[in-house]
Fold:
Amino acid sequence: MSSSARELRFTATDLAYVLSALRAARDAREAFRLAADKAHEPALRDVARRGQVAWDDDNARIVALLARWDRPEGTARPAMEAATELSVPPLQAIAPGPAHDLRLVAALSESVEAAILRDRAEMIHGCEPAARDLAEDHLRDAARHLSALRRALAPEHRLRGSAPA
Structure:
């Protein structure tokens, strides 16, 4: 039976990962929204808008995983409200302009890199195939997000090691 057709049996590690992934997806979507509003470079605004859509899709996938969570009798599903509190860094304080695009990319990259650490931990310690699939997809997506963010910067603001556009 495929993992999409059966109830999921999360371990504590899997459940902690999926809840943190839900928080991260919502935080990332908000951070990318702020970047789309504040970025100076049109290419960076475009990357940020595409990031919003990707994180919306990711959020829906995670919520669907939690809806299929099989729990022992008398055990409640995790409180979704606890996973919906945003913890986005204060990107609102960043004024638009070329010098601040670098700060936006750094803040967004830091968020993506933190997600990579969570995803790797799930790949190592998680048991539920659906949660591990989510982590694997996140790792692939994170590489694309980081690359797109760095390419979107103007040449004079590129991070070291970024490929030319």
